[in-house]
Amino acid sequence: xxxxxxxxxxxxxxxxxxxxxxxxxxxxxxxxxxxxxxxxxxxxxxxxxxxxxxxxxxxxxxxxxxxxxxxxxxxxxxxxxxxxxxxxxxxxxxxxxxxxxxxxxxxxxxxxxxxxxxxxxxxxxxxxxxxxxxxxxxxxxxxxxxxxxxxxxxxxxxxxxxxxxxxxxxxxxxxxxxxxxxxxxxxxxxxxxxxxxxxxxxxxxxxxxxxxxxxxxxxxxxxxxxxxxxxxxxxxxxxxxxxxxxxxxxxxxxxxxxxxxxxxxxxxxxxxxxxxxxxxxxxxxxxxxxxxx
Length: 293
Prior knowledge:
Elements: H1 3-10, H2 15-31, H3 35-43, H4 49-60, H5 62-78, H6 84-111, H7 118-133, H8 135-143, E1 150-152, E2 158-160, H9 183-287
Antiparallel strand pairs: 1-2
């Protein structure tokens, strides 16, 4: 048992199995009398989501990861000799390769029953960018033993978020740069790459802002459409109610006129009856002899 063997095994496991496997390896080393190795195993940090994705890419898609790192090595070789068109072409190729690798990472995560958050995807992009710019970061990335993502800041080497020291790296998994390169050429290169990356980041931010604005506008349109539909429904209900009320009013008006006619007819009948009563009373009075005392 040695540290490289243990680290290769641990960082290839699903993240949820890492801690238990590390504890078991540490106990095994102590039982074998390897106290120093046990202490080294104990320091191995559990990979976060970004590191886990990068480690899986290195183990399962190294043949697709190497072209990106070779692109970075070629860029470092060219250094300040690149024209603007060449730099733009490099940026296009880099974006294409990084996008494809991030999709590969998402696929690996999906098969493992995991979801890749937007932050993890950006962290994986930053780790891939760091491996492209810095040979040391490329070496760590290809080793597949990261515990957190890598970032490249300024002109210096990549900022490594943790993981075991590489006492050895398997053949075919390194991306070292040629000796004798000047720091000035690397600085110029890094500056141009950083400028290109800033342009890409600005464009991405603009797209994100536009996407959010469109989403807000779509939401506002949907809300307005909903309110319009509700208003139309309310108008339709009011129209139906008005039609019913109008019909009821017409029926009531017709009933009122009919009742009025019946009332007038009844009044005429009463008047005729009263007139006949008076006439009958007068005739009776005419034929009745007067009382004699």
